[in-house]
Design brief:
With about 350 residues, the protein is of the alpha+beta class. Among the domains are: about 85-150, no CATH class; about 150-245, no CATH class; about 255-305 and about 315-350, no CATH class. It has 14 helices and nine strands. The protein has a four-stranded antiparallel β-sheet with strand order 1-4-5-6, with no helix packed on it. It has a three-stranded mixed β-sheet with strand order 2-3-7, with no helix packed on it. The chain has a two-stranded antiparallel sheet with strand order 8-9. About 15% of the residues are buried.
Length: about 350
């Protein structure tokens, strides 16, 4: 017997494999016809269906499979890589495009280079070697247009600056977390016009994100009348008060957090909300110096240069919520604390922007 290599693109040389694949496809097609529909509610249900069909077809070959299994070598202890790896840069739109699919990520990752492990059903994102998040894998549309995997929580606060952009947003259908939001937007468009509809919808989505209540809010959206934004805010503000109490209990139950919290609130102009934000978004607080803290909070200007070109440095990057939490306390301190006031005025005199 003389072995010969299989040539890529020559179909008849893979007949033993391709024929079995063809029979399996026909078998699956017939079973779907008997089932009455090719639609599955979730991916797990479809995989269970396929596993059952393959198991039924494999029973007739069980004896041959068992005989061959005795001659097989044991599997490797380490799992082989079943993913492709690539590097993407998060654009100013708050996402990246990979294989004709646009994925959104948290806005604090804008400008970052992320390492992506590309699986059959998901994407695992890493910032350096640190796991960041897992996204479901999307597919391009059958007509060749881009697909979209959108989490409204990643992009809704940027929409707040320009709410009218929601009207012609290419991934508007994927932005709504539930059908109730889409129906409410259609109702607003029909009765109030584009301007009011876009502003109201953006505020509803911001409310759902800030209060972590998109399911409860969807249940409260009326199907046939205009949503009352003020009434919804009053209702979920009660939940916000209970959340503040839960944060306080969490801090008090941990001696390390409680000690750091006491030190922070002892600083003039820093109160409970700012202290909780610092504890949540700057976990290294207490073990890093002032330069490292400024870098973590993205308050240190980033140098922009390429070769002989020298651009203007400015602060940017992740943790904008941390900068926002520090802004008002810093403004109060610069107005009433003499040493900080002198430092602030000296920076202004050197041509630094006021904020």
């Amino acid at each position: 017997m003389t072995p010969t290599p299989n040539n890529r693109g020559v179909a008849h040389e893979n007949g033993v494999i391709e024929s079995a694949h063809g029979h399996l496809k026909s078998f699956v097609r017939d079973e779907l016809l008997l089932r009455g529909t090719g639609t599955f509610a979730i991916l797990v249900e479809y995989r269970r269906f396929i596993a059952e069909l393959v198991g039924r077809r494999s029973r007739c070959s069980a004896a041959r499979i068992d005989a061959e299994r005795e001659l097989l070598n044991p599997l490797s202890v380490q799992r082989t890589a079943d993913y492709e790896e690539t590097v993407v840069t998060v654009a100013s739109s708050g996402g990246f495009t990979l294989r004709k699919v646009f994925y959104t990520v948290p806005s604090r990752q804008i400008g970052q280079r992320l390492r992506v492990r590309f699986y059959d059903d998901r994407l695992e994102l890493f910032l350096g070697s640190t796991p960041l998040l897992v996204l479901p894998r999307g597919r391009a549309q059958p007509n060749g247009k881009h697909g979209h995997v959108v989490d409204y929580r990643h992009v809704i606060h940027s929409r707040r600056c320009k709410p009218m952009g929601l009207l012609n947003l290419v991934y508007r259908a994927q932005l709504f977390p539930r059908d109730a939001y889409r129906q409410a937007f259609d109702l607003l468009l029909d009765r109030s016009g584009p301007g009011v509809a876009c502003r109201t919808m953006v505020e509803l989505l911001c409310l759902a994100h800030e209060r972590a209540c998109d399911a409860e809010l969807a249940d409260d959206l009326p199907a046939s009348r205009m949503p009352d934004l003020n009434a919804l805010r009053r209702r979920f503000d009660v939940q916000l008060a209970s959340l503040d109490a839960a944060i306080a209990r969490t801090i008090d139950s941990d001696p390390v957090l409680a000690r750091r919290h006491d030190i922070l609130v002892s600083i003039p102009s820093v109160r409970a909300i700012t202290a909780a934000s610092l504890l949540a978004d700057m976990p290294g607080l207490g073990s890093i110096n002032e330069r490292q803290a400024a870098s973590v909070a993205r308050l240190a200007p980033v140098t922009r240069q390429s070769g002989k070109w020298q651009g203007k440095g400015f602060i940017r990057g992740e943790r904008s919520n941390l900068r926002q939490a520090l802004y008002l306390p810093a403004l109060v301190a610069a107005s009433f604390k003499l040493d900080l006031k002198r430092s602030y005025e000296a920076l202004i005199q050197r041509g630094k922007p006021a904020k």
